[in-house]
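anyone seen this seq b4? input:
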Amino acid sequence: MSTREKILEEVLVEEAIDLNNEIILYNDDVNTFDHVIETLVKVCNHTLEQAEQCSILVHYKGKCTVKTGVLAELKPQCSALLEAGLSAEIV
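predicted toks r here
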């Protein structure tokens, strides 16, 4: 394997690892479906349908991955969800 191929492989592995971050949204007894849906549309750029599906999954399953991606992009989104009163974390 050439040096160039090794570097390319390292970059691909790094990118794959970097994209494995997720924002998990948790169920609570405080927020309404409408608030959760509006917040997901605003903060995570979900379509209305995506946000509705996530809110239903959170309600019945207790949690749902609402966004995946690069940690640097997810941090401000997760903070915005928390500021809106939702329960979320990055894993």
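The two ends are 34 Å apart (CA to CA). DSSP finds four helices and three strands in the chain. kinda curious what u guys think
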